[in-house]
Write a structure and sequence with these properties.
Length: 43
């Protein structure tokens, strides 16, 4: 299945890889894990 452009953009800004790149993003993931949340939204 081909990813639509808007979804591709979304993945680039809210995806797991993007979050791991930045210090703040890693903090976000750590916070999500702490409260037992799904790390990235299914889109």
């Amino acid at each position: 299945m081909k990813i639509r452009n808007s979804n591709k953009k979304r993945a680039k800004t809210t995806g797991f890889r993007y979050r791991m790149k930045t210090k703040g993003g890693r903090k976000v993931l750590r916070r999500h894990r702490k409260i037992g949340r799904q790390l990235t939204p299914k889109g």
